[in-house]
Amino acid sequence: MSKKVEDAANEDGRKPSIWDTFVHDNARISRGDDDIGCNQYHKYKEDVQLMVKTSLDAYRFFISWSRLIPDGKGPINPKGLQYYNNLINELTSKGIQPHVTLHHWDLPQALEDEYEGWVSRRVVKDFTAYADVCFREFGDRVKYWTTINEGNALAIGGYSAGFVPPQHCSPSSTYNCSRGNSSTEPYLVAHHVLLAHASAARLYRKKYLDTQHGFIGFNLLTYGFVPLTNTSEDINATQRAKDFYTGWFLNPFIFGQYPDSMKENVGSRLPVFTKRESSLVKGSMDFLGINIYFTYLVKNNPDSLHSEDKSFTADIAAELQYVHENGTSTYEIPITPWSLNGLLKSLKKEYGNFPVYIRENGVLD
């Protein structure tokens, strides 16, 4: 969602992404292209000067795929290329290290129209070609690359619950989706996201690493999970929640396979890695970026597995009670630093001591 800070949605050759379509189709959301927000596209020099004044030494931003390659594949947009070069040069000239994310849920609409985007395996090839352009054009100055922002939230929000673009979900979902299948598409999308990341990482290491000396990472929306009670049922349910939300991606990155609990509960709806794919995905992450805002209390709920309406949340076989920071939750446990501390310890214990960057955190209203 680079447009969130860039604006200029319809300027200088940029074409729509699925986020533009989503905004236009939802009256309750600002149109985005008509409203002027941060306007970084025109005011990046002022923005960087503000960073200097606040003593920032790094800046994380997102490249808009449809600004750089308007149709998702094919010709590069010279104006888009110039903008990102200008921004990166302005940052590095002021001693600010650019941390670039390639994809923040804003797939070019052209690819969604052609083959349904992340639902199709074809997206792996197009994403890798897009990443290649970015590595080639910007990699002499960018050392930290994140392929996908919140890969798990992309799959769940866009293809299970349907509350973010491209709004795919089953008819039984709370949101009014015109297409989709909440029982299968989230798992397909996550599988293709993992393969796209791994393909881009392989390309970078083979073609650019020796000269650019950079790092390829991935970003997840993470949570604090706490058992509602000290029973073995709730403790096991808490581990399942971890498996489904973070192990879904970290297990393939570290071990080359999905968690056993996912294989058991999802069954044949969960894609299977070939031996080649497993070896490609395993070890393809140099670092993990995490975003954390929520803590959940977890209660075992095996009955959800027998529901006719299969979905990602039902497959976990657990109820998640959102904990508010102001104590308004039923169980009144606030979000506190121990939640983040516990998450970091859990990641290290279960997956090893790889680099972790805390990209987003805080309290939501």
Main traits of this protein?
seven-stranded mixed sheet, 365 residues, TIM Barrel, single chain, alpha/beta
Question: How would you characterize the overall build of this protein?
Answer:
The chain is of the alpha/beta class and 365 residues long. It has a single domain (3-223, 268-291, 351-361), classed as TIM Barrel. Helices cover 45% and strands 15% of the residues. The protein has helices at 3-6, 18-25, 40-53, 65-68, 78-93, 109-115, 122-138, 151-161, 185-207, 209-212, 232-255, 260-266, 275-281, 312-315, 337-351; strands at 58-62, 97-103, 144-148, 215-227, 287-300, 318-323, 356-361. Strands 1, 2, 3, 4, 5, 6 and 7 form a 7-stranded mixed β-sheet that branches. The longest helix has 24 residues, at 232-255. The two termini are 20 Å apart. The mean pLDDT is 92.
Question: Strands, helices and their partners?
Answer:
Layout: H1 3-6, H2 18-25, H3 40-53, E1 58-62, H4 65-68, H5 78-93, E2 97-103, H6 109-115, H7 122-138, E3 144-148, H8 151-161, H9 185-207, H10 209-212, E4 215-227, H11 232-255, H12 260-266, H13 275-281, E5 287-300, H14 312-315, E6 318-323, H15 337-351, E7 356-361
Parallel strand pairs: 1-2, 2-3, 3-4, 4-5, 5-7
Antiparallel strand pairs: 5-6
Helix pairs in contact: 3-5, 7-9, 8-9
Summed up, what is this model?
It is built from 15 helices and seven strands. With 365 residues, it is of the alpha/beta class.
